[in-house]
Write a structure and sequence with these properties.
The protein is α+β, with helices and mostly antiparallel strands and 64 residues long.
């Protein structure tokens, strides 16, 4: 997992066609998203804004 600077998200990683998101409250979610989304997220200036615009709104999350 890669730690990111966000008040809501603690860290993210990508494994086998799944984007994993660990939130600050300790919950872990998996999103079936292409690796391009993960790579673009790492380059984004605002990790929270990117998550809301391109992950949460586009892909269904499943709590693990």
């Amino acid at each position: 997992m890669i730690n990111i600077n966000s008040s809501v998200i603690r860290s993210i990683s990508y494994e086998v066609d799944s984007l994993l998101v660990l939130f600050q409250d300790g919950s872990l979610y998996s999103y079936e998203a292409p690796v391009k989304v993960f790579n673009d997220w790492l380059k984004s200036d605002s990790k929270g804004r990117f998550f809301n615009m391109f992950v949460r709104s586009e892909f269904k999350g499943v709590e693990l």
